[in-house]
Fold each of these.
Amino acid sequence: MDDLPPPPERSRGSLSTAVAGALRDAQERTLLERVHADAVPRHLAIIMDGNRRFAADHGMVIAEGHVRGKDKLEQLLDWCLEAGVRILTVYALSTENLDRPKDELDALMDLFAGAFLDVVTDPRVHRHHIRVRAIGNIKLLRPDVQEAIAKAEAATRDYKEYQYNVAIAYGGREEILLAIRAIAEEVAKGTIRPDQIDAAMVSRRLYTADLPDPDLVFRTSGEERISNFLLWQTAYAELYFADVLWPGLTKLDFLKAIQAFQNRQRRYGR
């Protein structure tokens, strides 16, 4: 009987990749166990920064960088569900971003319209009872995006287990100004007195009126600033900055941010 041929040798590259993958999976499992052993942020806010730089670094057109960013957001939702984060607010498009070139904005609007329509039939959304909303000056968006948002919000309006908020055409200063104007109108009508105005009154007039303030604000790309995001709401939030571009974020990066939050002692100014 002839000898059987030896099994094909695995290339050194594929073997090292497999080992690295197994090590990463083990690290993720270990860190997830530690995260589950302590309180996670009830409300996590994320500044998703770095799509365009990621595209440039990988020889892609800008639109492809935004597609990769959307794919990462899909992963992030799974990670939040697994970690137990109940409220997620992501910064998708600022009012300043609306000044970007038309071709880039058109590609972004296509992505947004598709993403909100996907919510209507996404089994995860309905299985976990996730309420999906857009916060911001929605009237500045393309009509089809506005329609897609309305459909997503209508399909999830009664859900209360989880909340997923997309800040789109959003500006923190504008949000505060709108609240101030609403209060000023009530003062002018005589329905409230100036000495009755307090922080709670302002909070009730923000886009996030029915949400608790964020516990953790997490920004990617290595930049360390808030960029006009939830300015009023983040007064006592913990801040975490990761030196990784948004589409390149890994589950390990995400879990490290959660653990860093758990290791901090929150003082709320006291």
Amino acid sequence: MDQDIINKTLAFFAEYITPYLTADYQGEAFHLFDTIHFAALGAILLIILLLAISREKFSKKNKENFRDTAAAILLVNEVAWHLWAYFYSEWTIQKMLPLHVCSILIWLSAWMLIKKSYRIYEFAYFLGIGSALQALLTPDIGIYGFPHFRFFQTFISHGFIIIAALYMTLVEEMRPTWKSLLRVFIITNIYMVAVYFINAYIGSNYLYLNHKPATTSILDVLPAWPLYLLYMEALGIVTSIILYIPFVIKDWSDNRGLKEAGTDRLDDIL
């Protein structure tokens, strides 16, 4: 009887699970901006909207539970990807080291959630949201369409990078400053120089510094190497400024409110 249960379980996995784990996927390939792509983006957006709507209802325990759960999702999902790549002989130092912005921010975002680290938050907000959004809009998953493991892994990892940064902003009420923007800019450029030489040494292309990616991306509309690096730099600066605009508006509104309150108080005294 026990052997029969084992055989049935193995048969179930072989028929219904294994085909969606294999590296040689025979199912439908991923299609940019089809119904499934929009559904995945919609699911991430829904979580963000729920956070925004319910941000004032989070108790201290709720906050701890959400941070721990989101951190666990990021870590388990990333470890599962590395195990999958190793099992199917896809793991190489040229592809799997945590040197891409999103790859390293998965680990850092988990640490940020657990420790409520403001220094990591600065990078998670500016770099994480911008990079992960681009990765969600033009995923680098090739043949692995829905419902393959890589499809879910990609959207979960990049989606929760954004969710983690926005959670810390909306619920934990962290916010970047102009100094944050300057720190992120300087440290990121130092990091990019280091990664460029790592790429040259091991034959990789982390951060797409040495050549454009083989799959469709926003870089396809930019000039050839090395000019597109300057466009990437400019795009990163513009994206960061756009992400900072809500705080500029809030600061302006708060200052205006203080001035009006000060004027009203002066009128009362007079």
Amino acid sequence: MTAAGVIIAFAILGAVFVLVTVGQLHDEASFLQFYAAGKDAGFTLRQIRLLHRVARETNFANPSSLFWSKRSLDRCITAVYRGFYRDGLEDEPRNAAFLDQLFSYRKMIELNQPRVRFGIQSTRNLDVGQSLKIMVDGGGSFRSRIVENTRTHLAVSYPSSPAPPRGLTWRGKMIRVVLYRRDDAAYTFASRVNSDYLRRKPPILQVAHVELMEREQKRDSVRAPLTVPGRITPVQAPEDVDPLPTDTGGFRCRMVDISEDGAALIVGGRVKAGVHLRIETRIDGHPVIIAGTVCSAAYNEKKHFTVLHIAGEVTDLVTKNRVRAYVFGFDRAQTQQRPDRLSATVRCEHSSAEPAPKQAPEESVAEEPVSEDPSRVAMSRGDAETVA
């Protein structure tokens, strides 16, 4: 080889060495940046390593984005969750605790969004269809709904349930309105009824806009609609709830929505606030048991059913993670459609040396039919008045 060839060969080797070294330094710098972001978010070194590998294998241009981007974090959680679920590792304590931390971080990002964190101030921003509770001095409280939101006023349905006292005149009345804005908070405001249109079909009230509503209760969790059958059983205290599924007994109900710290449901008859309940339902074919207390109850006298809002908690961490996966839209059913190359990553980095054996698929449990019409929700035994 000539001297020129030797020089060229050394130059090529030097360039390769520089590229490799620069690449390693870049990777180290990238991991250090990722590590710092992960520590700030409260994750352990083992968890940060797993998240970094998952981020790389899912082709994140900026792996650190999963600590502030909801979309990136969702991709990461989906990969980890599906890996655990497919391999039968989601119920191992270490994995359940890791998922708990991921979901808690995901909830924090969701609830820190401006629309949730700061809410609204003006009634001009309320949506048509928003449910209202209208209170008037000396007249009681009534249910209503926004039917129109114009530049000059709110048009609300004529207050009902219960029927207003005979002779009550709404025009010119000062009213206090309470509402719960979905995925936000509870609001109250005082306003004046400008006009009433009792001869209109359906009759409405025109209520003056206000530019400052009181925001009374910020959401502590994220909920999602859940329209499946369920069962409720009265208990002496939430700690008395049996965490094992039974699929029998209690009163039949229909779920309305669910979150990690409660639920809403419809049950036939009248039920009062303050009652402690065991709620049993299913998500993705898996049983979900909630120990809770009725914090509000809206009784429909005409159709004889009650909408209950339950404050409580799921009875174990694995089930709580399943509820949160459902709430945030992580569909586990897709995990069985095709192999996922992240499976080995998840198994090797974040599970015990001997993975738990896969459990046999659960036999499907035939659900007792429940009518879609809330007024026809039948009871297993007796009447819900006994729950009051």
Amino acid sequence: MDHTKRRQFLQRSGVTFGAALVGGRLAAAASERPFPARSYQDAPGQRALLYELLGDLPDRQRPVTARKRGQAERDGYVLENWVLDLNGLEAVPAFLARPSGLTGPAPAILFNHSHGGGYDIGKREFVEGRSYLQPVPYAKALTDEGYVALAIDHWCFGERNHTSEADTFKAMLWEGRVLWGMMVYDSLRALDWLVTRSDVDSSRLGTLGMSMGSTMAWWLAALDERVEVTVDICCLTDFHTLLAKKGLSLHGVYYYVPSLLKHFTTADINALIAPRAHLALAGLRDELTPVEGLDIVDEELKRVYASAGHPERWQLLRYDVAHQETAEGRQEILAFLRRSL
């Protein structure tokens, strides 16, 4: 198909970014959007629409049950081992860490594990760490700060690594489900369970994660207003810039939600978090988060938080690294949590 016929086909098909895609002219797509920029005041309706895009999900109100498998004393904290029934389809193994000697309700963090091709790792990242995270695992770092923290195995990871990510994505698609939607659903229900605990102060909740866990953190906070503090590490990716740079293969298939770009930019989703506290950390040499896209998201969120009257609650920190957490970044994260929770 020559360029003229291709352009006519794209125009007839109503492809939003057709003009930018023809002839390899992809750069323009990074700055185009098919709808006006949003305000945090649009949040209730947009939050409902975002949830709707996540496919056929289990009943949001179905009862959540849990079975404790045991616990162990660690270095300054207690690690509880649980199996949660969050979705009615597949059991969800989980680790919960709480400070040793905790006597009353404490602020709580939902930790979201990364991808990194570590399908056998999952929630173990919480207690064992990963090569691109700082040496002290987050179970230790967070409990040392006085937080109760929860980490679950997501679909295809850890103890749920019985079927490949590609096969799970395809099977769910046939069933009208979206893999990312099912993962987000599990996170929402994990938060539902976390707040039922007597040692958790449900008015002081945060979420954080690296890479896939970073994306989960900002999706979760966008959809659930109970999350007061969000920390995302190395995955605040502007969708349209990623498309313009032909970088879609850099992210796993789990990342893609049907029809998402008809309704949302990355900044639009993150605007749903405002005016709650949000810290993002990025690497200037990280191909997963092109710098041009970081600029776009940063500019829009500065506007959103300023219009909400709390510009100080949004912060994007950039480091001269690739896809990794820095020592300076870890200190900033813990300080941000202290200030905000």
